[in-house]
């Protein structure tokens, strides 16, 4: 577990999105993993856990597969290379069925996390860190695989007051102040909403 520190040297209260960029599917929008608001003249310290979590949301109704009201079990992992499968499962009395996520230690691809859908209907795959999505949740078509390289860096950007964690980030907005930050580093925020913002990693 490590941290990043945000130091606000402005007289205002900027809203800072912390996020990763999808590497395997760069056309996907980034989502706000965390939102921090360091107070004027103060700082905010954000903890970055070393482990991740994977699970899927799904439907039990073949006539309405988009009604993903159910959630599979969640699996914690800390490896940079991992393979998971979403598959069908029946209760012991065979009176109920659903989906579960299992970890597969075969067919690993170096530095990639895979989530394969063998459930029979589309599911929504989640890769989380500290219980929040670090990538936009994706529909995984039956037989398809969600793939991501979770080694990607964290980024910071000043966003509007109406941006919350889990929301997709608007590229035109974050590109103005987007700054890469490594775990353990400190970023200094200066400027204002009137003159423009600047983020520099110290």
Notable characteristics:
202 residues; mainly beta; 6-stranded antiparallel sheet; 1 helix; 2% helix
H/E topology pattern: EEEEEEEEEEEEEEEHEEE
Alpha-carbon distance between the termini?
Answer: 20 Å
Query: Helical residue percent?
Result: under 10%
Indicate the overall shape. Answer: elongated
What summary fits the major beta sheet? 6 strands, antiparallel
Share in β-strands: over 45%
Count of beta strands: 18
Rg, Å, rounded: 19 Å
Tally the helices: what do you get? Answer: 1
Task: Tell me, rounded to a whole number, the average pLDDT.
Answer: 94
| Secondary-structure class | mainly beta
* Parts with pLDDT < 50 across at least 5 consecutive residues: none
Brief summary:
This protein is mostly beta strands. It contains 1 helix and 18 strands.
Task: Write a structural description.
The chain has 202 residues and is mainly beta. Helices cover 2% and strands 47% of the residues. It has one helix and 18 strands. Strands 5, 6, 7, 11, 12 and 13 form a six-stranded antiparallel β-sheet that branches. Strands 4-1-17-18 form a four-stranded mixed β-sheet, with no helix packed on it. A four-stranded antiparallel β-sheet has the order 3-2-15-16, with no helix packed on it. Strand 11 (123-129) and strand 12 form a beta hairpin. The model has no long low-confidence stretch (mean pLDDT 94).
